[in-house]
Design brief:
Number of helices: 7
Number of strands: 14
Shape: globular
Distance between the termini: 7 Å
Strand order of the largest sheet: 6-5-4-3-2-1-14
Largest sheet: 7 strands, mixed
Amino acid sequence: MELIFLGTGGAWGLPEHRCPCATCRHLREIGESRTRTSLWLEGPSRLLIDPGPDLRAQLMREDLPRPDAVLISHEHGDHYLGLDELLCFRRNVPSSDWQPIPVYATAPAWEQIEPRFGYLLGSLLEKRLAVPGQELTGAPFGPELAARPVKTYHGAMAKGSVGYVLTLATPQGPFRLGYTSDLVRVEDPQGFAGLDLLVCQSHFVHEPKVNRANHLSLQNALPLIAAWQPGRVYLAHLSCQDYLPGDDAANAMLKKYAPGDPLKDQGGAPYPVPRDQASWQALAERVFAEHGLTMPVRVAFDGLRVPLP
């Protein structure tokens, strides 16, 4: 069993095309990139989580088969616009052998998804409802694999926002994996408590003075992680939206958010904003150590495969 990070970037990916900020310029120079965040669980069943607009390239890169089910966290395009890329699986089997792929999302999320992709329902996809706080029902979920949506808040334009907690049956006992997806706060404070592995959003390092994007910063994730005490943490959904001192032209753009009270190190200085995988990993390890978080932390990257359990 393993967890595959198909993508680990924010809504526009990294680097964003034509973005003049120092982070995107640096990433172009070193040839490093991130596609939109999406996960694949290869376990008792195959789950695709948040099929974004980069799904075709992600499936091809990892040479993945048809998923047994799809979980959608909310109704923003970077988390579901790849649904019609799943047509490749239906085209490659006799029509008599095809069964629609179950797709789970909350009722408010379906209100946005169904008008766009209703033509796929019944033929390619089977619409199923995810109710926060209730275990998902229907195959492939059962004794070997369970999934429970956890209600989150990601702003007024994502009323259907949830994360997911998956429980896998293993020879060593139940293994619990959580995915926050996009959020600015959790509406069920204990929803992600006691996990073996947590995939946590870290859209910013420093909490913005005004968080228009309603995304979680590493700064605000720290007390949540301290309360939840997962066995290990993977950070995802990274962006270039932190304000970088001296990057005036890019900082003036709407997508750049000045911090309120920046996350500070033990000497009282704001932590530097990382610009690539290596500096993100170094920062995460330093921040966890200096804030008393003893569990391992890893900054995920596209194509990272994590053996489970």
